[in-house]
């Protein structure tokens, strides 16, 4: 599995884990992020209104030092 495919899969898992939030908000997690690159990838959160716990899940997984 390529890194881009893994990234999309992980983000969709975060969405499933928080399905009530996304259902009520009326958008998907892919509406909230931009994936840059293929291998390696970078994930940029463009929806600044995401709850802190969702932001944390994404930032922790894709944080680069």
Could you explain the architecture of this structure?
The protein is of the alpha+beta class. The chain contains three helices and two strands. It is about 50% helix and about 10% strand. A two-stranded antiparallel sheet has the order 1-2. A hairpin with a 5-residue loop joins strand 1 and strand 2. The longest helix has 15 residues. The chain starts with a helix and ends with a helix. The model has no long low-confidence stretch (mean pLDDT about 90).
DSSP strand (E) fraction? 5-15%
Residue-averaged pLDDT: 92
Order of helices and strands: HHEEH
Count of individual beta strands = 2
Instruction: Characterize the main sheet.
Output: 2 strands, antiparallel
Helical content stands at: 40-55%
* DSSP helical segment count: 3
C-alpha end-to-end distance: 23 Å
Strand-pairing-aware structural class: alpha+beta
> pLDDT under 50 segments (min length 5)?
none
Whole-number radius of gyration? Answer: 11 Å
Shape: globular
Q: In what order do the strands lie side by side in the largest sheet? A: 1-2
């Amino acid at each position: 599995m390529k890194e881009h495919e893994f990234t999309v899969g992980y983000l969709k898992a975060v969405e499933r884990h928080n399905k009530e939030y996304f259902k009520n908000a009326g958008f998907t997690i892919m509406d909230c992020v931009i994936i840059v690159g293929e291998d390696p990838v970078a994930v940029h959160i463009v929806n600044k209104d995401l709850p802190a716990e969702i932001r944390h899940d994404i930032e922790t997984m894709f944080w680069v030092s």
